[in-house]
Amino acid sequence: MSKDTFYSAVDIGSNKVYSVVARIGTEGELKVLGTGLVPSQGVQKGRIENIEEVRVAVSASIEEAQRYVGKGVISGVYVGVNGAHITCLNTKNVVENPNDIDDLDPTLVDQLIESAAPEVNPTQEIIHMIPMGYVVDGLALVRNPAGLHAKEVEVESHIVLGDAAILRNTLKVLDSDRVGVGSLVLSSLASAEATLTGDEREMGAVLVDIGGGTTDITIYRQGTPWYSSMIPVGGNQLTRDLAVAMRVPFYIAEEIKVKAGAAMPELVQLSEEVVVPGFEGQPRRVVKRRALSEPLHDRVMEILKMVLLRVRESGLRHIPSGGLVFTGGGAQLPGLCELARQTFGVPVRLAYPRGIAGLPSELQKPNASVVVGLLLWGIKHYGQKRTYRNGRNVERPRQVEKSRNGKKGGGFRSLLTGRKKEEQKVAEEVIVD
Ligand SMILES: Nc1ncnc2c1ncn2[C@@H]1O[C@H](COP(=O)(O)OP(=O)(O)OP(=O)(O)O)[C@@H](O)[C@H]1O
Ligand SMILES: [Mg+2]
Protein backbone atom coordinates (compact mmCIF):
# COMPACT_ATOMS: atom_id res chain seq x y z
CA MET A 1 0.00 0.00 0.00
CA SER A 2 1.54 3.28 -1.07
CA LYS A 3 0.57 6.83 -0.12
CA ASP A 4 0.98 7.89 -3.77
CA THR A 5 -1.34 5.21 -5.05
CA PHE A 6 -4.84 6.17 -6.12
CA TYR A 7 -7.62 3.71 -5.38
CA SER A 8 -10.83 3.85 -7.38
CA ALA A 9 -14.15 2.05 -7.10
CA VAL A 10 -17.34 2.00 -9.16
CA ASP A 11 -20.66 0.54 -7.99
CA ILE A 12 -23.01 0.11 -10.95
CA GLY A 13 -26.36 -0.29 -9.19
CA SER A 14 -29.91 -0.58 -10.52
CA ASN A 15 -30.72 2.93 -9.23
CA LYS A 16 -27.40 4.74 -9.08
CA VAL A 17 -23.81 4.59 -10.20
CA TYR A 18 -21.42 5.57 -7.42
CA SER A 19 -17.72 6.20 -8.02
CA VAL A 20 -15.03 7.11 -5.53
CA VAL A 21 -11.36 8.00 -5.95
CA ALA A 22 -9.17 7.98 -2.85
CA ARG A 23 -5.66 7.60 -1.55
CA ILE A 24 -4.12 6.87 1.82
CA GLY A 25 -3.13 9.92 3.89
CA THR A 26 0.04 10.40 5.90
CA GLU A 27 -1.58 9.07 9.08
CA GLY A 28 -2.89 6.00 7.30
CA GLU A 29 -6.35 7.53 6.99
CA LEU A 30 -8.48 7.41 3.86
CA LYS A 31 -8.35 10.59 1.80
CA VAL A 32 -11.36 10.69 -0.48
CA LEU A 33 -10.41 12.85 -3.47
CA GLY A 34 -13.72 12.72 -5.27
CA THR A 35 -17.11 11.03 -5.45
CA GLY A 36 -19.61 10.76 -8.29
CA LEU A 37 -23.20 9.76 -7.55
CA VAL A 38 -25.49 9.74 -10.60
CA PRO A 39 -28.80 8.02 -11.42
CA SER A 40 -28.30 4.67 -13.12
CA GLN A 41 -29.78 3.66 -16.46
CA GLY A 42 -29.74 0.41 -18.37
CA VAL A 43 -29.30 -1.88 -15.36
CA GLN A 44 -32.06 -4.34 -14.46
CA LYS A 45 -31.78 -6.35 -11.27
CA GLY A 46 -28.03 -5.97 -11.21
CA ARG A 47 -27.58 -6.95 -14.84
CA ILE A 48 -26.47 -4.61 -17.63
CA GLU A 49 -29.32 -4.53 -20.16
CA ASN A 50 -28.32 -1.54 -22.23
CA ILE A 51 -24.58 -0.99 -22.61
CA GLU A 52 -24.88 2.50 -24.10
CA GLU A 53 -27.09 3.80 -21.29
CA VAL A 54 -24.85 2.30 -18.64
CA ARG A 55 -21.79 3.77 -20.35
CA VAL A 56 -23.28 7.26 -20.17
CA ALA A 57 -24.10 6.91 -16.47
CA VAL A 58 -20.72 5.36 -15.59
CA SER A 59 -18.83 8.06 -17.55
CA ALA A 60 -20.74 10.81 -15.78
CA SER A 61 -20.10 9.22 -12.40
CA ILE A 62 -16.37 8.68 -12.99
CA GLU A 63 -15.96 12.15 -14.45
CA GLU A 64 -17.54 13.65 -11.36
CA ALA A 65 -15.35 11.57 -9.04
CA GLN A 66 -12.11 12.50 -10.76
CA ARG A 67 -12.99 16.15 -11.21
CA TYR A 68 -10.34 17.29 -8.75
CA VAL A 69 -7.68 14.72 -9.59
CA GLY A 70 -7.50 15.14 -13.34
CA LYS A 71 -7.93 12.60 -16.10
CA GLY A 72 -5.68 9.61 -16.51
CA VAL A 73 -5.65 8.74 -12.82
CA ILE A 74 -8.40 6.14 -13.06
CA SER A 75 -6.66 2.84 -13.42
CA GLY A 76 -6.93 -0.37 -11.46
CA VAL A 77 -10.58 0.35 -10.70
CA TYR A 78 -12.47 -2.04 -8.45
CA VAL A 79 -15.90 -2.64 -9.96
CA GLY A 80 -18.89 -4.29 -8.31
CA VAL A 81 -20.72 -7.10 -10.08
CA ASN A 82 -24.09 -8.54 -9.25
CA GLY A 83 -27.01 -10.34 -10.84
CA ALA A 84 -28.83 -13.66 -11.13
CA HIS A 85 -25.94 -15.10 -13.18
CA ILE A 86 -23.75 -15.19 -10.07
CA THR A 87 -23.44 -18.54 -8.34
CA CYS A 88 -21.24 -19.74 -5.53
CA LEU A 89 -19.90 -22.98 -4.22
CA ASN A 90 -17.59 -24.09 -1.45
CA THR A 91 -14.86 -26.53 -2.33
CA LYS A 92 -12.45 -28.69 -0.38
CA ASN A 93 -9.27 -29.78 -2.07
CA VAL A 94 -6.19 -31.55 -0.88
CA VAL A 95 -2.96 -30.35 -2.42
CA GLU A 96 0.60 -31.42 -1.83
CA ASN A 97 3.52 -29.16 -1.16
CA PRO A 98 5.65 -29.76 -4.27
CA ASN A 99 8.79 -29.02 -2.25
CA ASP A 100 7.90 -30.92 0.85
CA ILE A 101 11.21 -30.14 2.45
CA ASP A 102 10.34 -26.42 2.41
CA ASP A 103 8.10 -24.38 4.67
CA LEU A 104 4.99 -23.02 3.02
CA ASP A 105 5.88 -19.51 1.98
CA PRO A 106 3.07 -17.06 1.09
CA THR A 107 3.68 -17.45 -2.65
CA LEU A 108 3.43 -21.19 -2.36
CA VAL A 109 0.23 -20.86 -0.34
CA ASP A 110 -1.21 -18.68 -3.13
CA GLN A 111 -0.20 -21.28 -5.68
CA LEU A 112 -1.79 -24.04 -3.65
CA ILE A 113 -5.02 -22.08 -3.40
CA GLU A 114 -5.06 -21.40 -7.13
CA SER A 115 -4.29 -25.01 -7.94
CA ALA A 116 -7.50 -25.95 -6.16
CA ALA A 117 -9.63 -23.97 -8.64
CA PRO A 118 -12.61 -26.05 -9.70
CA GLU A 119 -13.20 -26.87 -13.33
CA VAL A 120 -15.94 -24.57 -14.52
CA ASN A 121 -18.20 -24.52 -17.49
CA PRO A 122 -16.52 -22.54 -20.33
CA THR A 123 -19.38 -20.03 -20.23
CA GLN A 124 -18.48 -19.15 -16.66
CA GLU A 125 -15.64 -17.28 -15.01
CA ILE A 126 -14.33 -17.50 -11.50
CA ILE A 127 -14.64 -14.09 -9.88
CA HIS A 128 -13.38 -15.05 -6.42
CA MET A 129 -11.56 -17.92 -4.80
CA ILE A 130 -11.45 -17.05 -1.13
CA PRO A 131 -9.68 -19.47 1.18
CA MET A 132 -11.86 -20.18 4.22
CA GLY A 133 -9.48 -22.37 6.18
CA TYR A 134 -6.80 -25.02 5.94
CA VAL A 135 -6.02 -28.45 7.33
CA VAL A 136 -2.23 -28.76 7.48
CA ASP A 137 -0.94 -32.34 7.72
CA GLY A 138 -4.10 -33.28 9.58
CA LEU A 139 -4.14 -30.18 11.82
CA ALA A 140 -7.53 -28.55 11.34
CA LEU A 141 -8.74 -24.95 11.73
CA VAL A 142 -5.54 -23.34 10.46
CA ARG A 143 -6.27 -19.80 9.26
CA ASN A 144 -2.92 -19.10 7.63
CA PRO A 145 -0.53 -21.93 6.82
CA ALA A 146 2.30 -19.63 5.66
CA GLY A 147 5.52 -20.42 7.50
CA LEU A 148 4.41 -23.91 8.54
CA HIS A 149 6.29 -26.93 7.40
CA ALA A 150 3.80 -29.16 5.65
CA LYS A 151 3.60 -32.01 3.22
CA GLU A 152 -0.06 -31.74 2.53
CA VAL A 153 -2.60 -28.96 2.86
CA GLU A 154 -6.35 -29.15 2.55
CA VAL A 155 -7.86 -25.86 1.42
CA GLU A 156 -11.52 -25.00 1.84
CA SER A 157 -12.48 -22.17 -0.49
CA HIS A 158 -15.49 -20.02 -1.21
CA ILE A 159 -15.79 -19.76 -4.98
CA VAL A 160 -17.89 -17.13 -6.73
CA LEU A 161 -18.68 -17.65 -10.40
CA GLY A 162 -20.30 -15.43 -12.98
CA ASP A 163 -21.48 -15.72 -16.56
CA ALA A 164 -18.47 -14.86 -18.77
CA ALA A 165 -20.49 -12.92 -21.36
CA ILE A 166 -22.27 -10.82 -18.74
CA LEU A 167 -19.00 -10.05 -16.95
CA ARG A 168 -17.49 -9.02 -20.27
CA ASN A 169 -20.29 -6.50 -20.69
CA THR A 170 -19.28 -4.86 -17.42
CA LEU A 171 -15.68 -4.67 -18.60
CA LYS A 172 -16.82 -3.29 -21.95
CA VAL A 173 -18.64 -0.42 -20.25
CA LEU A 174 -15.51 0.60 -18.38
CA ASP A 175 -13.00 -0.08 -21.15
CA SER A 176 -14.84 2.40 -23.31
CA ASP A 177 -13.81 5.12 -20.89
CA ARG A 178 -10.23 3.99 -21.07
CA VAL A 179 -10.55 3.02 -17.47
CA GLY A 180 -8.35 0.13 -16.44
CA VAL A 181 -10.30 -2.39 -14.39
CA GLY A 182 -8.29 -3.69 -11.45
CA SER A 183 -10.74 -6.35 -10.43
CA LEU A 184 -14.36 -7.32 -10.46
CA VAL A 185 -15.72 -7.84 -6.97
CA LEU A 186 -19.07 -9.33 -5.99
CA SER A 187 -21.16 -6.40 -4.70
CA SER A 188 -22.42 -8.17 -1.59
CA LEU A 189 -18.86 -9.11 -0.57
CA ALA A 190 -17.86 -5.47 -0.96
CA SER A 191 -20.87 -4.41 1.09
CA ALA A 192 -19.90 -6.86 3.84
CA GLU A 193 -16.32 -5.56 3.74
CA ALA A 194 -17.55 -2.06 4.58
CA THR A 195 -20.11 -2.94 7.22
CA LEU A 196 -19.55 -6.20 9.13
CA THR A 197 -17.59 -5.93 12.37
CA GLY A 198 -14.86 -8.42 13.26
CA ASP A 199 -17.14 -9.97 15.90
CA GLU A 200 -20.00 -10.39 13.43
CA ARG A 201 -17.67 -12.13 10.97
CA GLU A 202 -16.42 -14.49 13.66
CA MET A 203 -19.84 -15.21 15.20
CA GLY A 204 -21.36 -15.55 11.77
CA ALA A 205 -23.77 -13.01 10.32
CA VAL A 206 -26.04 -12.50 7.34
CA LEU A 207 -25.36 -9.31 5.41
CA VAL A 208 -28.48 -8.19 3.54
CA ASP A 209 -28.00 -5.29 1.09
CA ILE A 210 -31.41 -4.09 -0.09
CA GLY A 211 -30.84 -2.03 -3.22
CA GLY A 212 -33.31 -0.79 -5.80
CA GLY A 213 -33.55 -3.89 -7.99
CA THR A 214 -32.02 -6.64 -5.88
CA THR A 215 -31.41 -7.80 -2.35
CA ASP A 216 -27.88 -9.16 -2.08
CA ILE A 217 -26.80 -11.59 0.58
CA THR A 218 -23.46 -12.68 1.93
CA ILE A 219 -23.21 -15.01 4.90
CA TYR A 220 -20.03 -14.90 6.97
CA ARG A 221 -19.05 -17.84 9.13
CA GLN A 222 -15.94 -18.29 11.28
CA GLY A 223 -14.45 -15.08 9.95
CA THR A 224 -14.81 -15.72 6.23
CA PRO A 225 -17.48 -15.53 3.52
CA TRP A 226 -19.42 -18.78 3.39
CA TYR A 227 -22.27 -18.12 1.00
CA SER A 228 -23.32 -15.44 -1.48
CA SER A 229 -26.64 -15.04 -3.24
CA MET A 230 -29.15 -12.51 -4.44
CA ILE A 231 -32.90 -12.10 -4.45
CA PRO A 232 -34.27 -10.32 -7.54
CA VAL A 233 -36.47 -8.00 -5.46
CA GLY A 234 -35.45 -4.67 -3.92
CA GLY A 235 -36.76 -1.29 -2.84
CA ASN A 236 -38.20 -0.47 -6.27
CA GLN A 237 -40.69 -3.31 -5.87
CA LEU A 238 -41.90 -1.71 -2.64
CA THR A 239 -42.45 1.52 -4.58
CA ARG A 240 -44.33 -0.36 -7.32
CA ASP A 241 -46.56 -2.01 -4.70
CA LEU A 242 -47.28 1.38 -3.17
CA ALA A 243 -48.00 2.89 -6.58
CA VAL A 244 -50.62 0.18 -7.21
CA ALA A 245 -52.14 0.42 -3.73
CA MET A 246 -52.34 4.24 -3.81
CA ARG A 247 -53.18 4.44 -7.52
CA VAL A 248 -50.38 6.93 -8.20
CA PRO A 249 -47.46 6.99 -10.66
CA PHE A 250 -44.14 5.44 -9.60
CA TYR A 251 -42.39 8.78 -8.95
CA ILE A 252 -45.09 9.90 -6.54
CA ALA A 253 -45.10 6.54 -4.78
CA GLU A 254 -41.29 6.84 -4.40
CA GLU A 255 -41.65 10.29 -2.87
CA ILE A 256 -44.28 9.08 -0.41
CA LYS A 257 -42.32 5.94 0.47
CA VAL A 258 -39.14 7.87 1.30
CA LYS A 259 -41.04 10.59 3.18
CA ALA A 260 -43.61 8.55 5.09
CA GLY A 261 -43.20 4.83 4.37
CA ALA A 262 -43.00 2.30 7.21
CA ALA A 263 -42.67 -1.47 7.37
CA MET A 264 -44.66 -1.99 10.59
CA PRO A 265 -48.22 -0.65 10.48
CA GLU A 266 -48.71 -1.17 14.22
CA LEU A 267 -45.89 1.28 14.98
CA VAL A 268 -47.68 4.04 13.07
CA GLN A 269 -50.15 6.19 15.04
CA LEU A 270 -53.71 5.79 13.76
CA SER A 271 -54.03 9.58 13.58
CA GLU A 272 -51.02 10.09 11.28
CA GLU A 273 -51.92 11.33 7.82
CA VAL A 274 -49.96 11.82 4.60
CA VAL A 275 -50.68 14.13 1.69
CA VAL A 276 -50.60 12.37 -1.67
CA PRO A 277 -49.68 15.03 -4.27
CA GLY A 278 -51.99 15.59 -7.21
CA PHE A 279 -50.95 14.55 -10.72
CA GLU A 280 -52.34 14.91 -14.24
CA GLY A 281 -55.39 16.83 -13.12
CA GLN A 282 -56.05 14.56 -10.12
CA PRO A 283 -56.45 16.52 -6.89
CA ARG A 284 -54.16 15.97 -3.91
CA ARG A 285 -55.49 13.56 -1.29
CA VAL A 286 -54.94 12.84 2.35
CA VAL A 287 -54.49 9.18 3.37
CA LYS A 288 -53.76 7.40 6.63
CA ARG A 289 -50.05 6.67 6.99
CA ARG A 290 -50.94 3.28 8.45
CA ALA A 291 -52.80 2.30 5.25
CA LEU A 292 -49.71 3.25 3.32
CA SER A 293 -47.52 0.94 5.36
CA GLU A 294 -49.65 -2.20 4.74
CA PRO A 295 -48.34 -3.05 1.24
CA LEU A 296 -44.80 -2.13 2.31
CA HIS A 297 -45.06 -4.49 5.28
CA ASP A 298 -46.24 -7.35 3.08
CA ARG A 299 -43.38 -6.96 0.60
CA VAL A 300 -40.75 -6.62 3.32
CA MET A 301 -42.08 -9.83 4.90
CA GLU A 302 -41.69 -11.58 1.58
CA ILE A 303 -38.08 -10.39 1.29
CA LEU A 304 -37.37 -11.54 4.86
CA LYS A 305 -38.79 -14.96 4.08
CA MET A 306 -36.59 -15.25 1.02
CA VAL A 307 -33.56 -14.25 3.10
CA LEU A 308 -34.41 -17.06 5.49
CA LEU A 309 -34.65 -19.48 2.61
CA ARG A 310 -31.19 -18.47 1.45
CA VAL A 311 -29.83 -19.11 4.95
CA ARG A 312 -31.28 -22.61 4.71
CA GLU A 313 -29.94 -23.05 1.20
CA SER A 314 -26.46 -22.19 2.41
CA GLY A 315 -26.53 -25.28 4.57
CA LEU A 316 -27.13 -23.52 7.88
CA ARG A 317 -30.12 -24.47 10.02
CA HIS A 318 -30.18 -21.18 11.91
CA ILE A 319 -29.44 -17.56 11.34
CA PRO A 320 -25.91 -17.30 12.84
CA SER A 321 -25.60 -15.64 16.24
CA GLY A 322 -24.17 -12.39 14.79
CA GLY A 323 -27.66 -11.91 13.35
CA LEU A 324 -28.88 -9.93 10.37
CA VAL A 325 -27.03 -6.83 9.21
CA PHE A 326 -29.05 -4.71 6.80
CA THR A 327 -27.62 -2.12 4.47
CA GLY A 328 -28.36 -0.60 1.02
CA GLY A 329 -30.72 2.29 0.27
CA GLY A 330 -33.85 0.14 0.63
CA ALA A 331 -32.93 -0.93 4.17
CA GLN A 332 -33.61 2.61 5.40
CA LEU A 333 -37.34 2.02 5.45
CA PRO A 334 -38.44 2.79 9.03
CA GLY A 335 -39.53 -0.32 10.92
CA LEU A 336 -37.73 -2.76 8.62
CA CYS A 337 -35.09 -3.75 11.17
CA GLU A 338 -37.69 -3.93 13.92
CA LEU A 339 -39.85 -6.22 11.79
CA ALA A 340 -36.86 -8.51 11.13
CA ARG A 341 -35.96 -8.55 14.83
CA GLN A 342 -39.50 -9.39 15.81
CA THR A 343 -39.83 -12.06 13.11
CA PHE A 344 -36.57 -13.90 13.69
CA GLY A 345 -35.63 -13.01 17.27
CA VAL A 346 -31.97 -12.44 16.38
CA PRO A 347 -29.76 -9.32 16.62
CA VAL A 348 -30.59 -6.96 13.76
CA ARG A 349 -28.99 -3.65 12.83
CA LEU A 350 -28.97 -1.12 10.02
CA ALA A 351 -25.37 -0.76 8.86
CA TYR A 352 -23.41 1.78 6.86
CA PRO A 353 -19.66 2.24 6.40
CA ARG A 354 -18.13 3.65 9.57
CA GLY A 355 -15.10 3.31 11.80
CA ILE A 356 -12.92 4.11 8.79
CA ALA A 357 -10.55 6.99 9.55
CA GLY A 358 -11.02 9.83 7.11
CA LEU A 359 -14.28 8.57 5.58
CA PRO A 360 -16.45 11.63 4.79
CA SER A 361 -20.01 11.72 6.11
CA GLU A 362 -21.49 11.57 2.59
CA LEU A 363 -20.13 8.00 2.34
CA GLN A 364 -21.40 6.99 5.77
CA LYS A 365 -24.78 6.02 4.30
CA PRO A 366 -26.33 2.60 3.64
CA ASN A 367 -26.36 3.18 -0.13
CA ALA A 368 -22.56 3.72 -0.09
CA SER A 369 -21.68 0.36 1.48
CA VAL A 370 -20.80 -1.27 -1.85
CA VAL A 371 -18.59 1.53 -3.19
CA VAL A 372 -16.75 1.97 0.12
CA GLY A 373 -16.34 -1.81 0.37
CA LEU A 374 -14.90 -1.92 -3.14
CA LEU A 375 -12.38 0.72 -2.14
CA LEU A 376 -11.42 -1.19 1.01
CA TRP A 377 -11.18 -4.37 -1.04
CA GLY A 378 -8.88 -2.60 -3.50
CA ILE A 379 -6.64 -1.31 -0.70
CA LYS A 380 -6.51 -4.72 0.98
CA HIS A 381 -5.75 -6.62 -2.20
CA TYR A 382 -3.59 -3.98 -3.86
CA GLY A 383 -0.89 -5.50 -6.03
CA GLN A 384 -2.32 -9.00 -5.71
CA LYS A 385 -2.71 -10.98 -8.86
CA ARG A 386 -6.37 -10.99 -9.80
CA THR A 387 -8.07 -14.19 -10.80
CA TYR A 388 -10.27 -12.62 -13.46
CA ARG A 389 -8.76 -11.01 -16.52
CA ASN A 390 -10.70 -9.02 -19.08
CA GLY A 391 -13.12 -11.78 -19.87
CA ARG A 392 -10.46 -14.35 -20.60
CA ASN A 393 -10.07 -17.49 -18.62
CA VAL A 394 -8.91 -17.51 -15.07
CA GLU A 395 -5.18 -17.36 -14.86
CA ARG A 396 -3.88 -20.31 -12.94
CA PRO A 397 -0.38 -21.29 -12.00
CA ARG A 398 0.97 -24.71 -12.90
CA GLN A 399 -1.30 -27.41 -11.49
CA VAL A 400 0.46 -28.91 -8.49
CA GLU A 401 -1.82 -31.79 -7.77
CA LYS A 402 -5.52 -32.36 -8.15
CA SER A 403 -7.72 -33.40 -5.31
CA ARG A 404 -6.74 -36.95 -4.43
CA ASN A 405 -10.23 -38.32 -4.25
CA GLY A 406 -11.23 -36.42 -7.35
CA LYS A 407 -13.89 -34.58 -5.38
CA LYS A 408 -14.58 -31.18 -6.82
CA GLY A 409 -16.30 -29.34 -4.08
CA GLY A 410 -18.43 -30.91 -1.40
CA GLY A 411 -20.25 -27.63 -1.08
CA PHE A 412 -23.38 -26.13 -2.49
CA ARG A 413 -24.26 -24.25 -5.58
CA SER A 414 -26.82 -21.53 -5.37
CA LEU A 415 -29.51 -21.55 -8.01
CA LEU A 416 -31.90 -18.69 -8.18
CA THR A 417 -34.89 -19.83 -10.15
CA GLY A 418 -38.03 -21.93 -9.92
CA ARG A 419 -38.39 -22.19 -6.19
CA LYS A 420 -41.32 -19.98 -5.40
CA LYS A 421 -43.41 -22.63 -3.69
CA GLU A 422 -40.52 -24.03 -1.77
CA GLU A 423 -39.58 -20.54 -0.62
CA GLN A 424 -43.01 -20.00 0.78
CA LYS A 425 -42.99 -23.35 2.57
CA VAL A 426 -39.55 -23.04 4.11
CA ALA A 427 -40.18 -19.46 5.10
CA GLU A 428 -43.13 -20.48 7.28
CA GLU A 429 -40.63 -21.82 9.80
CA VAL A 430 -38.99 -19.13 11.82
CA ILE A 431 -35.56 -20.30 12.89
CA VAL A 432 -34.02 -18.82 15.97
CA ASP A 433 -30.39 -19.40 16.73
N1 LIG B 1 -35.38 6.68 3.19
C1 LIG B 1 -35.66 5.62 2.45
N2 LIG B 1 -36.62 4.74 2.85
C2 LIG B 1 -36.90 3.66 2.11
N3 LIG B 1 -36.31 3.35 0.96
C3 LIG B 1 -35.36 4.18 0.51
C4 LIG B 1 -34.98 5.35 1.22
N4 LIG B 1 -33.99 5.97 0.52
C5 LIG B 1 -33.77 5.22 -0.57
N5 LIG B 1 -34.58 4.16 -0.58
C6 LIG B 1 -34.67 3.10 -1.61
O1 LIG B 1 -33.40 2.56 -1.85
C7 LIG B 1 -33.36 1.97 -3.14
C8 LIG B 1 -32.05 2.29 -3.82
O2 LIG B 1 -31.02 1.76 -3.03
P1 LIG B 1 -29.51 1.67 -3.55
O3 LIG B 1 -29.03 3.03 -3.91
O4 LIG B 1 -28.73 0.93 -2.54
O5 LIG B 1 -29.74 0.82 -4.87
P2 LIG B 1 -28.72 0.34 -6.00
O6 LIG B 1 -27.43 -0.02 -5.37
O7 LIG B 1 -28.67 1.34 -7.09
O8 LIG B 1 -29.48 -0.94 -6.57
P3 LIG B 1 -29.06 -2.50 -6.65
O9 LIG B 1 -28.13 -2.75 -5.50
O10 LIG B 1 -30.35 -3.23 -6.52
O11 LIG B 1 -28.43 -2.68 -7.98
C9 LIG B 1 -34.56 2.54 -3.89
O12 LIG B 1 -35.56 1.53 -4.05
C10 LIG B 1 -35.08 3.64 -2.95
O13 LIG B 1 -36.48 3.79 -3.01
MG1 LIG C 1 -26.55 -1.77 -4.67
Structure commentary:
With 433 residues, this protein is of the alpha+beta class. Among the domains are: 87-160 and 392-414, Dna Ligase, domain 1 (2-Layer Sandwich), CATH 3.30.1490; 198-350 and 415-433, Nucleotidyltransferase, domain 5 (2-Layer Sandwich), CATH 3.30.420.40. The protein is 30% helix and 27% strand. It is built from eleven helices and 18 strands. The protein has helices at residues 51-65, 106-115, 164-175, 187-195, 198-203, 235-246, 250-260, 289-313, 336-344, 369-380, 420-427; strands at 7-12, 16-24, 30-39, 43-44, 47-48, 77-81, 87-96, 124-136, 139-142, 152-163, 181-186, 205-210, 215-221, 224-231, 273-276, 285-288, 324-327, 348-350. Strands 3-2-1-6-11 form a five-stranded mixed sheet, with helices on both faces. A five-stranded mixed sheet has the order 14-13-12-17-18, sandwiched between helices. β13 and β14 form a beta hairpin. The longest helix is centred in the last third of the chain and has 25 residues, at 289-313. The relative contact order is 0.17. Mean pLDDT is 84; it is low at 387-433. Residues 13, 187, 209, 211, 328, 370 line the site of magnesium ion.
